[in-house]
Each structure stands twice: as C-alpha cells, then as structure tokens.
Amino acid sequence: MFDHIGFNVDDVARSKAFYVAALAPLGMAVLAEGEGWAIIGSSAGRIWIGQLGLAASPIHFAFRADSRAAVDAFHKSAIQAGGRDNGAPGLRPEYGPGYYAAFVYDPDGHNVEAVTGSAT
Known about the structure:
GO terms for molecular function: dioxygenase activity; lyase activity. It is built from two helices and nine strands, in the order βαββββαββββ.
C-alpha cells in the first residue's frame, strides 16, 4: 500500500489549483505546503508535487472513490479546473466487473484516474 507518491511538475501553483479542485470530491485537500511544493490528499493517500527538478514524464495513478457519484464529481471538477478528458465516467468491464472510473490528464499530461467498485 502506498502512503504517497511524489513527482515534479512544471508549475506548482497551476498543478496545486488543479489537484485541489479535482480531488475535493474525493475528500482530499492541501495537507502541507512550502516554497515550491505541496502535499494534497487525505488519510487514504497523498500526492506530493514540487518544482525541485525537471517535470516527470507522464505517469498514471488512480484514486479510490467511495461511489460512482464521487467519480463523476471528480471528472467534472478536474475538467473545470483545466484538465483534459481521457475517459468519461463509466463502467470499464475490460478492467473487471463493476470497475467504474474516469480519467483526466492533469496540466503536465499525467493520467489521473478516480475508480470505484461500488454499484452506486
């Protein structure tokens, strides 16, 4: 189980604004921040973003959501915060029974997912 994941971004302020908006529907918020970095998350998991070197090559990571409504809200909030759609909310039977997810690209091109196995 991961405690947190960290990666460099091109613009901490822009990425922080994106992640704060996109992850709010999943119950996440800024936990700590300093000059050139921020930690966003909850007790369920965190991301560290910073400008302490070159931006990371695009990666993929997923956050567990409590419900399909939370996945839907994540996608909507992420798009409104400047994310680019990479898969509207919906069932993904190719990933497993009941796998309901949405995907967005963040400002640096990272593929961010919210997923639930909940039927509601």
